[in-house]
């Protein structure tokens, strides 16, 4: 079951980190040392993209139907996992604590790297990151195109199984509320139940975003105008 809302608490903060930090972070990904990434056949639902073996060759799905990307999982609370690069992103989380003036409990920190595949589609698959109550934040590492799309529709908590709720998003006639463009050192915070979608760059070479999922000890949007 989907819920349509017209009041959307989305916080956009430019120049979120110090300029030196944002440049150093950018250099970690685009400099000569390199950074470890893992390939995903689809950035939203990787398990649903299945290549087949036919007539002694591999057959891939239509590239318009999926969005392959690179990912680095920096932190997963439920698995008690931290990558060796976790501390590189800790200053962003510390600044979020100060900005929101709340106690935040982070459940996941995930980096996504989309490349320009010259694919002609508006956005990737609409989704939510976690079906439990949570907030989500996006930190854009580099200037790029490939907007994030936010829809009027929200996932309805506890309204069915994970599969049923994912299928409800796929079947819904979604309407776009807002688009936010990737800009280096920009942070976006929103309700984790709001359906959203990434998109691939069509002009820039790449798009890197750090995705934070977390809960808070208060309603962080209560005083948002």
Q: Please give the count of helices.
A: 3
CATH topology: Jelly Rolls
Mean pLDDT: 86
Low-confidence stretches: none
What shape does the CA trace take? globular
Report the structural category.
alpha+beta
Number of domains: 1
- The secondary-structure element order is EEHEEEEEHEEEHEEEE
Helical fraction equals 10-25%
Rg measurement, Å: 18 Å
CATH-level-2 architecture: Sandwich
The CATH superfamily is identified as q2cbj1_9rhob like domain
Can you count the beta strands? 14
Instruction: Say what oligomer this is.
Output: single chain
Fraction in beta strands: 25-35%
CATH class identity: Mainly Beta
How far apart lie the N and C ends? 29 Å
Short description:
The protein is of the alpha+beta class.
What can you tell me about this protein's structure?
16% of the residues lie in helices and 35% in strands. The protein is α+β, with helices and mostly antiparallel strands. The protein has a single domain, classed as Jelly Rolls (Sandwich), CATH 2.60.120. Strands 2, 3, 6, 7, 8, 9, 12 and 14 form an eight-stranded antiparallel sheet that branches. The two termini are 29 Å apart.
Task: List its traits.
225 residues, alpha+beta, Jelly Rolls, 8-stranded antiparallel β-sheet, 4-stranded antiparallel β-sheet, 3 helices, 14 strands, 35% strand
Architecture blueprint of SSEs:
Layout: E1 2-4, E2 10-13, H1 19-30, E3 38-40, E4 52-54, E5 57-59, E6 69-76, E7 81-82, H2 86-100, E8 104-115, E9 135-140, E10 148-155, H3 162-171, E11 176-180, E12 186-191, E13 194-197, E14 206-216
Antiparallel strand pairs: 1-10, 2-12, 3-6, 4-5, 6-7, 6-8, 8-14, 9-12, 9-14, 10-11, 10-13
């Amino acid at each position: 079951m989907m819920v349509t809302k017209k009041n959307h608490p989305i916080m956009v903060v430019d120049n979120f980190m110090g300029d030196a930090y944002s440049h150093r972070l950018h250099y970690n990904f685009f400099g000569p040392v390199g950074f470890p990434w893992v390939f995903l056949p689809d950035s939203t639902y990787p398990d649903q993209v299945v290549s087949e073996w036919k007539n002694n060759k591999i057959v891939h799905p239509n590239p318009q139907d999926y969005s392959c990307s690179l990912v680095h999982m920096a932190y997963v609370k439920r698995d008690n996992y931290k990558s060796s690069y976790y501390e590189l992103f800790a200053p962003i989380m510390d600044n979020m604590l100060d900005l929101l003036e709340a106690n935040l409990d982070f459940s996941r920190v995930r980096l996504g790297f989309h490349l320009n595949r010259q694919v002609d589609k508006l956005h990737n698959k609409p989704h939510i990151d976690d079906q439990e109550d949570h907030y989500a934040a996006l930190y854009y590492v580099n200037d790029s195109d490939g907007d994030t799309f936010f829809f009027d529709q929200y996932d309805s908590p506890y309204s069915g199984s994970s599969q049923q709720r994912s299928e409800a998003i796929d079947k819904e006639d979604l309407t776009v509320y807002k688009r936010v463009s990737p800009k280096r050192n920009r942070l976006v915070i929103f309700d984790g139940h709001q359906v959203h979608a990434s998109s691939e760059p069509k002009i820039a070479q790449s798009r890197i975003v750090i995705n934070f999922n977390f809960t808070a000890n208060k309603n962080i949007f209560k005083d948002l105008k």
